[in-house]
Amino acid sequence: MRKMRVLILTVLMAGLSVPVWSQTSPDGQFIQNLRAFAKLFGYIRFFHPSDEAAQFDWEKFAVVGVERVKKAGTSQELKAILKELFLPMAPTAQIYLSGETPQDPPPSWPKTTTSLKVVAWQHRGVGLGNANSPYASIRINRANILKVATLPAVLTQAVDARPYVGREIKLKAFVKLDGKEYERRGYLWLRVDRKNNQSGFFDNMGNRPIRTSAWKEYEIAGKVDEDAVEIVFGGMTDGGERLWLDGFELLARDEKGRWKAVPIKNPGFEDGLPDQAPAEWAARSQGYHYKISRRNPGQGKQCLMIEPAVLVVPAKLFDKIPAVGEMIQKKLTGDISCRIPLILYSDEKETQGKNDVNPFDPWMKSLAAKKIEDWTVNNEAVRLADVVIAWNIFEHFYPYFDVVGVDWDRELTWALQKALGDKTDQDFFHTLSLMVAHLQDGHGNVFSAQWTARAGLPLAVEWIENQVVITASADPVRFQRGDIILSMDGVTAETALIDAEQYLSGSPQWKRFKALSRFGAGEEETPVKLKIKRGGKILDVKIPRYWKQPVVEPKRPVIDKVEDGIYYVDLDRAQWQEIAPKIQELSSAEGVIFDLRGYPKNNHLILCHLLKANDTSGQWMQIPQIIYPDREKIVGYDKSGWFLGAHEPKIKGKVAFITDGRAISYAESFMSFIEYYKLGAIVGQPTAGTNGNVNSFELPGGFRIAWTGMKVVKHDGSQHHLIGIRPTVPMKRTIQGVLEGRDELFEKALEVVKK
């Protein structure tokens, strides 16, 4: 027993520093080792229902595990390492070589099952820790607790800025965090507000989050603008883990250059009683508790603790569970297979199956002792772990593999090889982006504070007549409406678009819109060289990336009487509270043009005034019910729809909706009613072809990935994904129309409603 514990400790603690590994071929032993680890990781994390697996820090384990399996030189060695890694939290799992026969039942199966309960995983989509999501993952006959928080928790205080204008200021505080290391994200923030609601200095540590589990002092320094009116500051967390704050100081330099304290209220949270919210601070964020605590303060006798609220979810999500004794049997490599029970027995305390050969407690202690808070994706093991984690979430739960036609098993090998060859964190950002792009999911996005484009050019462009055309400009000296961008930094504009699109996920129309919206974006102040055609002239323009606001074309009023009997409503901007008082006028109009080239402003109730009868189109939003891996044998769907009622007064005149490829998700739910019930002409281009609630997850190293977790079909049950809502009156813009400042899609819609 003692020797086994020493062995496990040695396995875990080996290799605190990660050497550079060489890239190997797809059939090489090293890639096969990683593939075997990745597959077993997903099977046990999401489908083996032991208490040990449910409480495990899988993200941290992924980093340790990929580092460990590289040592296997043969299948026999790989089998031994996989057993060392996985059996402490899954002692009833069996890992065996070709030619070996797994024991039935497993050796650690309980001899007597009288009065024991069964425990099994149920996944509605997949729950990744957010209780407010429609997605959930629970174990039946177990307490399932989820965090409620969806927004950041913010602590705020403000002081008058006028005594300190023109001076340097500094914010200091002690900070620490609890919980899983990869989810720890705390921040101090400091902002200067200027006159007329203008922004001054601002730093929220967004590119350098605090992840430490021990008290440490941090600081932010800036300057107070000459027209400043207020200095606002505080702390924040958006990682869903417990944040501790203490010892705030705000300092300003005096005329002699010395730092002097700026008076702030209750800086060390000494005023107030334990478990109460802190006096003198704005401390209220939905889904969090703010509590004064005397437990191990950073300074003085008290500190502040901010923790997410939790919710106990139902005992089961749906009726179906695996049969007692049901196992999955899967190949991990050509030579190694696994056999894993989908049902375990449990008494009142714990799931059954523990044994002395693979004890769990030493495992947990050893894993907890490994510190990864400073690991980044410059570390090869972190990159490989991120691939393992992300690939498995999509492998078992992405609902659109039946229509996107990607070989996801082959993608695992490709992504592992690509991660091995990456030299920088930006390289790996591109690897993750390519991986998500292969899903063809318009909601698919990789987020990184460091590699998200921060600035662009003062213009808007569209793809018109097979060219990149400027449609709006905030710098009319250098850029004019109707200019054609021929090249950017020596690369043709079309090639630049295509290059950008390879890193974007979704349908062709959505990727083209996203690439155009980011055209020329990159690191702030880096230069861009453009070659532009204006009339018969070719112009060379060099400009730094500095623009941070969207540039938009002039728009009509939000609700506009175009001419007698004809109205226009911009659904991108008009909230229902603005539309409702006009509903009587709209109902009696000869024609109404609704503009949905974007995203609605919570105004879908307008559909009720277009419907001739109550909506009975059915349940077109479908969340898979999953109890088996690899999306096999989906046992059902949680189905829902909007089931809108028909309301008076009815809009009786002719109706046209303008839309195009930038309309996604909620906008497509909206437009699906227009399409199915034929509530009006649809003018323009196909919508994005992505609908359904977004799911997201964090990765070690600072990345977050968003994706679509449910299947949405058209109201008649046919495919919506990648297709979208197609126009009944196709219409495209022309360069001449842009030069003349015309909205040709609006003109076509007006023609339609006047016919």
Layout of secondary structure:
Layout (H helix, E strand, L loop, with lengths): L1 H12 L15 H19 L3 H4 L3 H12 L5 H12 L7 E4 L19 E3 L1 E4 L11 E4 L5 E3 L5 E8 L7 E10 L8 E9 L4 E5 L12 E8 L4 E10 L5 E11 L5 E4 L19 E2 L4 E6 L9 E6 L1 E3 L14 E5 L4 E6 L2 E3 L14 H9 L10 H18 L3 H4 L3 H14 L3 H13 L7 E3 L11 E6 L2 E7 L10 E5 L2 E2 H9 L6 H10 L9 E8 L2 E8 L14 E5 L2 E5 L5 H4 L3 H5 L3 E6 L24 E6 L9 E5 L13 E6 L6 H12 L3 E4 L9 E6 L3 E6 L2 E2 L16 E2 L4 H5 L4 H11 L1
Helix pairs in contact: 1-6, 2-4, 2-5, 2-7, 4-7, 7-9, 9-10, 11-12
What does this structure look like?
By secondary structure, the chain is of the alpha+beta class. It has 4 domains: 2-120 and 323-370, no CATH class; 153-308, Jelly Rolls (Sandwich), CATH 2.60.120; 459-544, Roll (Pdz3 Domain), CATH 2.30.42; 559-754, 2-enoyl-CoA Hydratase, Chain A, domain 1, CATH 3.90.226. Helix content is 23%, strand content 27%. The chain contains 17 helices and 38 strands. Strands 7, 10, 12, 13, 15 and 16 form a 6-stranded antiparallel sheet that branches. Strands 22, 23, 24, 25, 26 and 27 form a 6-stranded antiparallel sheet that branches. A 6-stranded mixed sheet has the order 28-29-30-33-34-38, with helices on both faces. α11 packs across α12. The longest helix has 19 residues, at 29-47. The termini are far apart. The model is unreliable at 1-23 (pLDDT under 50).
